[in-house]
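Re: the request from the purification team.
They wanted to know what the chain is likely to look like in 3D before they choose a buffer screen. I agreed to run a prediction and write the result into the notebook, where they can find it.
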Amino acid sequence: MKNKSQFVYVTYISSSAEKVWNALMDPEMTRKYWGHLNVSDWKHGSDWKHEDASTGQIRLVGKVLESTPPKRLVITWAFPADAQDKEKHTRVTFDIEPVGKAVRLKVTHDELESASDMEKGITRGWPVVLSNLKTLLETGEAMDTKSLFEQSKK
């Protein structure tokens, strides 16, 4: 068995739990801060896909393991080429908790193969995505997703 790792990111967003929940699921919202469409009905057992907003290419796929609006979403996460190989699937948990007039969003991405391309990609990607989500919800405008991702690779 290969070594597994996890990546945890916590941010506080001046918003409601319902708005954060919606922003994680609504394809038009994810397009704004992620540059991708997250597509599913978000029910337990359903498929989901992460589609490049400009090319339509499917970048990630998975299953919804848990969906408890607006508090918790758990999904599997894999490259399309690895869709049938469960050993290559990772798991992402979104925990949303109201804290005063804000929301604490904790994203835990685990079951990662240490030093894999997936682990390298998400450790650069999650901070960009979640910072841009925070910016969009707090200001109404997202930052330039493409340039953010390019800068994160440096």
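For the purification team: The chain has a mean pLDDT of 94.
Please add any questions underneath this entry.
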